[in-house]
């Protein structure tokens, strides 16, 4: 299946990129997300996979801005993630109605240090291009669909206006009181916030090591505070 193959290619590329990342915190996150994306796609958890894609995009962009990831590698990863995202949305009918606020954060932070001259772009590109050399049909597919979906995830979705950080803190407080909760409990606590946004909040808290997700998806899945 195209989606399975593409996720495997991206995961392998992330592992290879992470080897060259000097910052341990960024390297470990890239490696963890490589496996998380692979697991969610293999387990048909495609909404979680879309959240994984957004997190990987953010980590890759950050790595580029702080000179830990070659710009050409970050560009290739972003392109391939866009193709995968479009394929998931088209094949499984997952749409997003979130408002695009990407223009607010479009400016890159100015970093005073010069880019390391010993990491040549040509050498860097050779790491990824053999992995991500997709057939023309797949590339055409990504170009036709990426324009519609590329902006759909640029916002975390603040739902009823609650700042995402405050909302995530509230989720932690609810779990602290209840010991464990399911997605339906979170939806009931935030009736004006979209399910996709709340899934993103839970996914982010899991990635940050705050929560544990127990179960393989569906109604039986619940979340607890990491001990």
TrEMBL record:
Keywords: Transcription, Transcription regulation. It holds the Pfam family HTH_DeoR. GO terms for molecular function: DNA-binding transcription factor activity. Residues 167-222 form the HTH deoR-type domain. Residues 139-161 are annotated as: Disordered. InterPro entries: DeoR_HTH (IPR001034), WH-like_DNA-bd_sf (IPR036388). This is HTH deoR-type domain-containing protein. Residues 142-161 have a biased composition (Low complexity). It comes from Candidatus Harrisonbacteria bacterium RIFCSPLOWO2_02_FULL_41_13b. It comes from the Bacteria.
């Amino acid at each position: 299946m195209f989606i399975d193959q593409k996720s495997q290619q991206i995961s392998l590329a992330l592992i290879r990129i992470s080897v060259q990342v000097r910052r341990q915190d960024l390297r470990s996150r890239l490696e963890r997300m490589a496996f998380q994306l692979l697991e969610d796609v293999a387990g048909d958890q495609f909404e979680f996979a879309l959240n994984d894609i957004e997190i990987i995009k953010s980590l890759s962009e950050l790595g580029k801005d702080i000179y830990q990831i070659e710009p050409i590698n970050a560009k290739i990863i972003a392109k391939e993630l866009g193709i995968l995202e479009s394929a998931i949305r088209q094949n499984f009918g997952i749409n997003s109605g979130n408002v695009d606020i990407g223009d607010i954060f479009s400016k890159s932070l100015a970093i005073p240090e010069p880019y390391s001259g010993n990491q040549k772009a040509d050498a860097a590109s050779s790491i990824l291009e053999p992995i991500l050399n997709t057939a023309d049909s797949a590339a055409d597919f990504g170009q036709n669909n990426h324009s519609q979906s590329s902006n759909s995830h640029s916002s975390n979705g603040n739902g009823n206006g609650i700042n995402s950080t405050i909302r995530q803190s509230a989720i932690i407080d609810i779990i602290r009181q209840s010991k464990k909760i399911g997605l339906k409990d979170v939806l009931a606590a935030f009736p004006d916030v979209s399910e996709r946004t709340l899934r993103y909040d839970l996914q982010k808290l899991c990635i940050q090591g705050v929560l544990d997700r127990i179960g393989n998806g569906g109604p039986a899945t619940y979340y607890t505070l990491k001990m």
